[in-house]
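ARCHIVE CARD
Drawer: 12
Card no.: 0347
Subject: one protein chain, sequence and derived structure
Cross-reference: see card 0346
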Amino acid sequence: MQIFIDDEIKNKVPFAKLAVIKYSADVKDINNDMWEYMDSTIIPNVQKELETKNVTEFENVLSSRKAYKAFGKDPGRYRVSSEALLRRIKQNKGLYKINTVVDTNNLISVESGFSVGSYDLEQINGDITFKIGMAGESYKGIGKDSVNIENMPVLCDSDGPFGSPTSDSEKAMIKNSSKNIITIIYIFSEYNCIDTLINKAEKYIKQYVDAKNVETFIVK
């Protein structure tokens, strides 16, 4: 399996890239150590930052919003997932607890401000292309009836779109039965700290998901 970024995305947002972590794991319901770290360190740090700035002023949220505008998608109506998570923290709503992979995925997203998606590789067919959704395209989102992906940056396999920085489809969602996983960090800026980002993400995934056979790379 290979991963490509379509020319249309690169033409509109030249710095677009994907930080990728592939691994195997036994998915569990919860990792209490991760939630202790999230609740005692990450969320308080974010809350302190939110005292002096709006969610949309977080640098990596802002770059994603600018990219959506460049693609022709309203970032206020179709928020990237990192913005949605930060807004929940700002509103003291708390974060959902799903499973060890998704929860760690959200830890990376909250700390970095980048949207992050994790997908079951066994449900993905062929190569993956990161492209812009076509007119009239949609898919059934996780916990949603339908997600309008027209003009939205989306991951596609040979069967069609299955994921985006806003909301993923049910097709490759992580379940407790998932064994081979790919975690993708969506980056829409020049961002000079990508090696530090992917190394920290790898550390979290090994620590809180007990990942094995870990492989990391960057798609530009």
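Annotation on reverse: The longest helix spans residues 32-50. The chain has a mean pLDDT of 97.
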